[in-house]
Amino acid sequence: MSEAEAFHDTNILLYLVSADAAKADVAEALIAGGGHVSVQVLNEFASIATRKFGMTWAAVADVLEVVRNVCRVHPLSPETHDGARAIAERYGYALYDASIIAAALMAHCKVLYSENLPADRKIEALTVRNPFHE
Length: 134
Prior knowledge:
Mean pLDDT: 94
Number of domains: 1
Distance between the termini: 15 Å
CATH architecture: 3-Layer(aba) Sandwich
Helix content: 40-55%
Number of strands: 6
Strand content: 5-15%
CATH topology: Rossmann fold
Shape: globular
Strand order of the largest sheet: 1-4-6-5
Low-confidence stretches: none
Number of helices: 6
Structural class: alpha/beta
């Protein structure tokens, strides 16, 4: 599988700025390989990075500039929302998680890298993987 077929959850981006060197290295390698993220992932990163990590907006912008240069960013749309509602209902995910899953499916990704979602779960053509336990 090429990294172009990978979608990155918010926690992958957060580990880019983590004090956990091992996880930061994994996250950096994943993002360096490209892939996909959604605007929701960018927004969640900015919110958590400023609120919980105390990053400045300028530092957040610097990280997101790198991510946006190597990953394809997918907008949120009514279709993403509709897909998320269907996934939440069918699989029992919270709507925010289902929105990321829907965006990954709409991007035709084969894998969703996430530490927060159950690993090795298959959702239609998408498999959730925890890259920190592979």
